[in-house]
Task: structure prediction
Amino acid sequence: MPVTHPTDSYTAQTTLPIDKPALQVENLSFQYPDGHIALRGVSLRVQPGEKVALVGPNGAGKSTLMLHLNGLLQGEGEITVADLMMEKDNFPVIRAQVGMVFQNPDDQLFSPTVFEDVAFGPLHMGLSEDEVRHRVGQALTQVGMGEHGDRLSHHLSMGQKKRVAIATVLAMQPAILVLDEPASGLDPRGRRGLIELLQELPQTMLVSTHDMRLVQELFPRLVIMDDGRIVADGLTVELLANQALLEAHGLEQP
Result:
């Protein structure tokens, strides 16, 4: 199913064209205003349906890369989402296609209730009230929070907040999920629930994490970043077996 074009209603499609990369980054560089160079010629291609882990030490450029994938940051280079170039006119469609989940769920939960948080995106897509309610119910059910719509968001546990933050994105029906440290701050039960949720979701995924056990269990492909560059990209099982490579970039075997 082709993606929607900017002149159409920008309801996202959860199925991407199989003959094009879901995400393509070509020679992307970015420097912050203070002069810090965060990305140095990064190129990356993610195919539809892939689940890819992105790892590296703090300051490697992982979060900066992710913020480029729906136009929150704009560096030098080219980014394509399905068949759409990352440019201002395409931002509404791309931001509906690429669901971004931040490390801290409080950055995404700002409404009085869980229902209102999850409804925020669909409401701003101009959908009908019935469709908004349907999407909210569906998204909350997907993340195991279907009975919590009336809860106050700030009263939830960290694991529950993480699930609701993911639901706010799922309600937009994106084709691609980009998650930054989704397992951080979770207890073992919350972490296990998150793994089960991510295993079940059909979307293409790019997930930044320091949790190497999560990488080993969930992601067939692994991308390692360091000092603003991609230093390795391949099968997770092979890269995790390369202890010298991991140690050289501040990582540990699970």
Summary: The mean pLDDT is 89. Residues 222 and 236 are 5 Å apart (CA to CA). The radius of gyration is 18 Å. The chain is about 35% helix and 25% strand.
